[in-house]
Amino acid sequence: MPAVGNDVVDLWADGACGKSRDKRFVCRVLTASEQNRLAESQNPDACLWAMWAAKEAAYKAVSRIFPDISAWPGRYETVFDQAGPARQCAGTVSTPQGAVRMHLDWDENRVHCLGLIGSAGLWQDVTADVLEPAVDVHPEIQPSAKQLSAAARTAAAAAIALHTGLPHALVKIERSRVCQRSAPPVVQINGIEEKIPVSLSHHGRFAAFAFLAPLQAQFAAMCS
C-alpha cells in the first residue's frame, strides 16, 4: 500500500531560529548519530529542521498504514544519501515499521520534506507544493494556523482536481478526529472517499501539500 507524507518548517518562525542550540530539545528529538551530524553541520538550524521534517514526513506516511505507530521522533532516524543535508537530497528514514524514502528541499527560508512508502518509481507520481499565503487585508500579518491549514487543503484539492480533470467543486479534503487526535486527511470526490494518499502541513508563514497522483482515466466517467 503506497503512502505519502510531507512536512514544512519555517526557519524564521518563533521557536525555530536558533533551536539547534537547545541541547535539551536536540537530545530529545535526535538520535546519537543525528546529534553528531548536527554538531558537524555548518548550518545547524537547517540541519536540525531537515531531520525533524524528514521524521515528520515519514511518520505521516507510515501512520496511514500503521495508525498506532509511535510518533516519538527519537524512534525515527534519518540517513541522507550524501553529507549535508544538501539543499536538495534524498535519503531514508528508519521507523519502527521499516524504512521510508524521503526527498528534502530547503532554502534560507524554509525546509520541506517528502516521505514515500512504495517503489522508487512512484516519485514521478508525487505532486507537491509549498505555499506562502498572505492575509488579504494586511499582507504583512502572518496567517493563523487555521488559515494556513485551510490554504493547504484548498490548494491540494485544486491540484487534485487539475490532475484528474474533475471540476474543483467535486474535490474536497476532509479531516476528522479519532480519540482526541486529528486523523490523516482524506480526499472526497463528489462526496465519496477515494484512496488518494494525501498529506498536509503548515508552519510559520508556509503551508504545503503532497499527494500520489491518481490516473485521470479512473475519474473520466465523472467528467462526462
UniProtKB/TrEMBL annotation:
<protein>
    <submittedName>
        <fullName>Phosphopantetheinyl transferase (Holo-ACP synthase)</fullName>
    </submittedName>
</protein>
<feature type="domain" description="4'-phosphopantetheinyl transferase">
    <location>
        <begin position="4"/>
        <end position="66"/>
    </location>
</feature>
<dbReference type="GO" id="GO:0000287">
    <property type="term" value="F:magnesium ion binding"/>
</dbReference>
<dbReference type="InterPro" id="IPR008278">
    <property type="entry name" value="4-PPantetheinyl_Trfase_dom"/>
</dbReference>
<dbReference type="Pfam" id="PF01648">
    <property type="entry name" value="ACPS"/>
</dbReference>
<dbReference type="InterPro" id="IPR037143">
    <property type="entry name" value="4-PPantetheinyl_Trfase_dom_sf"/>
</dbReference>
<dbReference type="GO" id="GO:0008897">
    <property type="term" value="F:holo-[acyl-carrier-protein] synthase activity"/>
</dbReference>
<keyword id="KW-0808">Transferase</keyword>
